[in-house]
Amino acid sequence: MSRSIWLLLLLVPLLVGCGAGLKEEGRLPISNPLGRSEGETMELLVGTVPSSRNGGAVTKQAFARYTGSFSDTSTNVTISNVHRFIICQRIQSAQVEVPEGASLPDTITLNNFHLSATFSDNQARVTFDVSVAGTATLTHTTGNNYAVTVQGEGVDPCLSATVQTGDLNTLAQIVTQGGSNMVDVTLTASVTSDPGLPDGTRIRLTTGLGTGTLEL
Fold first, then answer.
1. Disulfide-capable partner of 157 in 20, 46, 150, 182 (CB 3.0 to 4.6 Å)?
2. Is the Cα torsion angle 23, 216, 34, 109 positive or negative in sign?
3. Is residue 58 within 8 Å of residue 196, measured between CB atoms?
4. Helix (H) and strand (E) counts for the chain?
5. How much is the pTM?
6. What is the pLDDT of residues 149-191, one digit of tens each?
7. End-to-end CA distance of the chain
8. Using CA atoms, how far apart are residues 117 and 126, in angstroms rounded to an integer?
9. How far apart are CA 65 and CA 184, in angstroms?
10. CA gap 92, 35 in Å, rounded
11. Residue 49: exposed, middle, or buried by beta-carbon count in 10 A (0-12, 13-18, 19+)?
């Protein structure tokens, strides 16, 4: 028997073993699924929709829109049945830019997040709309800089979203096959502060590690 055939016989069990291990664990990790690497920014614009007041605090709405990219996840497993997709986006810090003459609040609270994300490559495209759990509290430090504390579900301090409906199998195809992956993101949030932030205020969130998990 030739040497090449012997090598093939040795490699096949290893490849099969890798696939079986992933199936048993039932989780496929994805890096930066929202298209923002550690140290990049996403900018929320405080809009002109109706606001509400509770004592001196004012709540308004803000939104961010951007397009990002992320890499495929390597796997030897053919994925055909995804149960859910979990996103965890960490936030490191923030800067707040208010219109001229406006004051910066000592604290700003961001909550009631909602995410619309369209994932695509050169073979497929799929969109998910989902609520995002977590509250981000911005505390003024120096200049227009803010420290950020995130309170979310569990012990991991991140903004988290869980997708359980929609075409999750197409998402699995996008992140394991085809060309470069793109994601179009629209993120909305409620913004509360005292004094209230003027319309046109820009909140730049510096992102930390972003992770995604396909549960099989």
1. 150
2. negative
3. yes
4. 2, 12
5. 0.85
6. 999 766 678 999 999 999 999 999 999 988 899 999 999 999 9
7. 40
8. 8
9. 8
10. 16
11. exposed
Cα(135)–Cα(91) distance, integer angstroms: 11
pLDDT of 23: 45
- Picking from 83, 89, 84, 69, the residue whose alpha carbon sits closest to that of residue 175 is 69
User: Comparing C-alpha atoms, which of 140, 134, 136 is closest to residue 107?
Assistant: 140
pLDDT at 15 over 80: no
139: phi then psi, degrees, rounded to nearest 5: -115, 125
Longest dimension (CA), the chain: 84
Q: What is the pLDDT of residues 82-98, one digit of tens each?
A: 999 999 999 999 999 99
- Segments in the chain forming alpha helices (H): 3-25, 168-176
What's the rounded Cα separation, in Å, for the pair 44 and 203? Answer: 5
CB 89 within 8 A of CB 189: no
The band of 47, judged by pLDDT with boundaries at 50, 70 and 90, is confident
CB neighbour class for 35 (10 Å; exposed up to 12, middle 13-18, buried from 19):
buried
Residue 115 backbone dihedrals phi, psi, to 5 degrees: -120, 130
Best-predicted range by mean pLDDT (8-12, 169-173, 203-207): 203-207
